[in-house]
Amino acid sequence: MSHLRRSHFCGSPMHALDRRGFLGLAAGAAAFAADMTQLNVLQHPLLAGEMKKQQKRCILLWLAGGASQLETWDPKPGAPTGGPFRAIPTSVPGIHISELMPEMAKRMKHTCIVRSLNTRNGDHGGAAQLMMRGRRDEANLKYPDLGAVLARELGQADSQVPDYVSFYFATEGRGSAPGSAGFLGSRYAPMELYTSMIPENIRRLDGIDDLDHKRRGELRESLSKQFAKGRASSSLGSHGEAYQRVRGLMASEKLFDVSREPQKIREKYGPTLFGEQALAARRLIEAGVPFVRVGRAWWDSHGENFETHRELVPELDHVMSALLDDLEQRGLLEHTLVITLSEFGRTPGINASLGRDHFASAWSATLSGCGIQGGSVYGKTDAKGERVADGEVGAAELFATIYRALGINHQKNYHVGSRPVPLTEPGTKPIKALLA
Amino acid sequence: MRSRHLTLPLLVLGLTCSFARSAEITPSGQTVEQVVDRYIESSLQEAHVTPAPPADDATILRRLTLDLVGRIPTVEETQAFLASTNPNKRVERIDRLMNSPGFVRHQATEFDAMLMNGTKGSVRAYLLVALSESRSWDRIYRELMLPDENDAKLKPAGEFLRQRVRDLDKLTAEVSCLFFGVNVSCARCHDHPLVADWKQDHFFGMKSFFSRTYESGGKLAERDTGLVKFKTTKGIERQAKMMFLTGKIVPTDTLKETPADTSKKKSKKEGEKKAPPPPAPKFSARAELVKLSLEPEQRDFFARSIVNRVWHRLFGYGLVMPLDQMHSENAPSHPELLDWLARDTAEHGYDLRRLIRGLVSSNAYARDSRWEKGETPRAALFAVARVRPLAPMQLAVSLRLAVADPKTFPASLTADEFDKRMAGLESNASGMERLFEQPGDDFQVGVGEALLFSNGERIQKELLADGGDRLLGRMQQLKNDEAIDLAVRTILSRPPRAEEKKLLGDYLQQCAAKPKDARQQIVWALLTSAEFRFNY
User: Which residue among A289, B29, B212, B480 is least enclosed by CB atoms within 10 Å?
Assistant: First the structure.
C-alpha cells in the first residue's frame, strides 16, 4: 500500500452507507423487474430512472497508437528524458501532471493515475489486443475483450439498446484492435462505428414503410416459433433473441444523435469529433448501454512527439474533463468508470526526429469514477521514467481491478464447452489500494 | 526427469487399454454405419432412451445436401427425392452428392475453416486439388506439415505453417489441437493442473519439432539443429527432448544450439522475395514428427482426432468434447466406437470419403431433430439430431440458391451443366460469405446479423430483387396460393404445411393493396426464419 499516495480519501462512513443503500435498492429493483409482466418498468419513470442509474457501466477513451505518459500523467520535468513541458500541481496536493492538462488538474479528485504499467509488448497489434483483452489468446481459445465481457456482465439479454458500442473513425491502427467478442460469440460483438455517427443497418431502408417492416418481422417470428417447437438449442434461441432486439435498436438511433443535446452541453464537449463521440458515449450509457469505447488516434509520435502531444493532449484534457463534469452533474459518475488507456506508452529516450518510440515497460493509464479511489496515484517510475520503481502492474492486474471496480468477480468462470475459463488468469489480484 | 518417468507409464497404460479394447471389439468387415448404429443403439438401451424417429425425406435430403455439398437442395431435387419410391434412394443420393464436384468444393471449405480459422490465410486452393484427387488425410497432413516450397502445386499448402511460423508456441499448440486433438498449451508454463498426461515435457517436446522452422523472404525453411530450453515451475532449467505426445522420443544428435551465423544473420540474399528458398535441412525435425505420429504404435492421436472432428461436424457434437481435450481424464462418450472408427480409418488409408459416407449413412445421423416428450436427452447419447447453424459459405450459397428462379436448375440439366451453374452461383455467393461468422460450439447469433437482414442495403439488393431470374420475379406472376407454395418449396426445401399456407395466405390478403411488396416480405420472412438459418 506504500505506493499509493492517497491524498484525497473518500472512505467516509457516508460512502459505505451509499453502497449499502445502493445494494438494497438494486435488490429491490431486481425483484421488481422479475414481475415486469404486471407493470412495464420502463413506463414507470421513477423506478426506470433509478434502475438505469444504478446499473454500472464503462467508457473507455482509447488513445490509439500509444499516448506518452511523460506528456500526460507522469511528467518528468528537468530529467534528460523530460521534454519541454512543465508539470503542474493538481487539486490533490502532491499530485502533479503535465501542464498540457490544466482542466484535469482541477478535477483530480475523481481520478486514479496508474503510473506503473509494465505490459511487455511493444508491437501495435499484439499490444492493442493485450490491452483490449487483458490477456493473450491461446491456441483454440480467443478471449473476449473488455467491452464484450462488460456487455455480458452488465447488459441485459433482451436489452433494447446496444450493449457494446465502439467509435473508431481514424484509419490508423484500426486493424490492430478491432473489438472482439472472442469465445463469447457474436451475441456480444461490438456495434462498431467507423465512418458515420449512425450505426450500420440501424435505419430502415426507404423501400419499406414502418408498418410493413414491423409486420414482416412478426411474420418471421411466427414462422420461427413453429420451427422452434421441440427443438432445444441455445444457438436457435439466440437467433430469435437477435431479431427481437432489432426494433429496439432501431429506436436507439437517436442516442447517437448529439444534435439532440442542448447547445450548452455540446459546447462543453467542444466541436471536435472526439468531443462529439464522447458526448454520444454519455448519451448511450445514460440510456443503459454498459460499454462504449471512444477511439482517438493517432498518438504514434515516432517523430515530433512534442508537437503531436501539444495538439492531442489539450483535446484529451478538454474532452475528458467535460465528460467527467457531465457525468457527475447527472449523478452518473459514481456508477460509470471512465478509463484512459493505450496499447503502450512512449520511450523516455527522445530519438533523433524528436520522437518517442513504443514503450511498454513503464507507462500510465487512468481510472475515474465508479468504484475507484479518486485523487490518487498508484505506482511509481524511476527518475527518468525508464522503469517501474514501485507497484508494477501488468495487463491482468489492471483488468482484474477494472472488473472489481465494476462489481464483477474477476475470478468468475466462463465455460467454453465444459472447460472453465476464469475471467482473469488464476492468481491475478486486483489492486485493492485503488478500489474505493 | 522425474516427471517424465511418472508420465510415461500412465500414457502407456492408457494406450494399452485402448488397444486391448480394439482387439475385442467388433471385427472389421462390417460397414461403418452398421458399427456406428450398433454402439449408439446399445448406449441408448443402457440409458433407457428411445431415440427420436427418423427424420422425414425432405429433412434428410436437406441435411445431406448441406453436409455434403454445402447448400440446400433445389426444388427439382426435393421433388424427385420425395417422389421416388426406390428403397435405396438415400444411399444413391449420398453417392451422387459425393461424386459431384460440389462435394470437393464444400469439403475444401470446411477443412479450410477447420485448419485456418483464426488466421488470415487459407489453404483452400491446395485442398481443392488434394480432395479432388481423394488424397488421404495422412497425406494432406504430410503435405501441410512438409510443404515443398519449390513445387508450385504444393506451395499453397505452406500457408498452414507460414501463418503460424512467427509464433512457435502457437504453432506447436495448434498443430497438437488440430491433428492430435490435444491442447498442451497449458503445459507451456506448468504441468497441466488437471490432466496428468500433459507435462511441460510434452509441450516443449512437441515444440522441439517446430523450433527450427522459420520464414525467410516469405518462404519456409528449417535449420539442421536447434535446442529448446525451458524452466520448470521450480525454476530449474531443462533441455527438451524431441518427444511426441505418447512419450516416444526421437533419438538425434542435432539437439544443439544453432550456430549464430545460420540462425541470426540471414544473408541479404536469403531475405529477398525472389531468392530461392534456403536449402532443406539434412535432418528435418518436422519430418520426424510426421513420420513418428503416423507409426502404427503412435498413430492413435492422429486417427482418433480426425474421426472425432468429422463426427463433430456431421453430428454437431463430438464423441469427445471439447475437440482438443482428447486425454485420459476426458473419456469419449462411446470409447469402443471411437476406437473402432479410428482403427478402421487408419486401416483404410485415412480415406475421408469412407468415413464421411459411413457416418451420413447411419441411422444415428438421420434422426428427427424434434424432441417433444419431456426433457431432451443429453447430447452425447445422439438420441435426437442437433440443430446446427449453417457455416458462412453454406448460408451464403443457400441464400443465393433460395432466391433464384427454380427454373435456373431444371430437371433436364445434365450433371455437368448443373454443376457449372452451381459453381457460378457459389462464386457469386463468396462475397456474402464474409458477412457471417464461422460458428463454434454454442454459437450465438449476434444482433449485427439480424440488423443486416432487417435493414441492410446489400440484402435488399442481392436477395430481394424481383428480376426475371429470381424466385420473386416468378412469384409475381402467380396467384397467392401458388406463390406461397413455390416460395416455401424453394426456400425451405419442403412443401408448405396447412398452417403455413393459412399464415402466409392471410398475410398476402392483409396486404392486398401492395401485392408485390407483400410477396417480397414473405420471401424475407422465410429467408430470415430460424428454419432456414440452421441445418436441422
Answer: B29
Extents of the domains making up chain A? 4-18+40-197+258-434, 204-256
Sign of CA dihedral B126, B132, B133, B135: positive
Residues B99-128: tens digit of each pLDDT: 999 999 999 999 999 999 888 899 999 999
Nearest by CB to A223, which of B442, B449, B529? B529
Tell whether A186 lies on the interface with B, counting CB pairs under 8 A.
yes
How far is residue A349's CA from residue A48's CA, in Å, rounded to a whole number? 53
From B243, B262, B294, give the residue that closes a domain. B294
CATH code reported for the domain at A4-18+40-197+258-434: 3.40.720.10
3-state class of A159 per DSSP? coil
For residue B410, give the C-alpha cell: 431444371
Residue A168's φ and ψ, nearest 5 degrees, are -155, 90
Are the beta carbons of B444 and A202 separated by less than 8 Å?
no
**Is the Cβ pair B387, A188 closer than 8 Å?**
no
**pTM reported for the whole predicted model:** 0.84
Measured between beta carbons, which residues in chain B are less than 8 angstroms from residue A208? 517, 521
Do B463 and B415 lie in a common domain?
A: yes
pLDDT at A21: 37
User: Could you tell me if residue B218 is inside a domain?
Assistant: yes
Interface check for A250 against chain B (CB to CB < 8 A): the answer is yes
**In this complex, which of B450, B460, B510 lies closest to A242 when CB atoms are compared?**
B450
How far out from the chain centre does Cα A175 lie?
Answer: 19
| Residue A264 forms contact with B (CB below 8 Å) | no
Give which of B182, B445, B522 to mutate to test A binding, by max A Cβ within 10 Å.
B445
Residue-range definition of the domain harbouring residue B440: 389-535
Average pLDDT, chain B: 90
Q: Indicate if the alpha-carbon torsion angle B140, B144, B146, B147 is positive or negative.
A: positive
Instruction: Give the residue from chain A lying closest to B389, CA to CA.
Output: A235
Q: State the Cα–Cα distance between residues A316 and B443, nearest whole angstrom.
A: 39
B417/B353 same-domain check: no
ipTM: 0.90
Mean pLDDT for A200-210 is: 95
Same domain, yes or no: B22 and B88: yes
Task: Confirm or reject contact between A232 and chain B (CB < 8 A).
Answer: yes
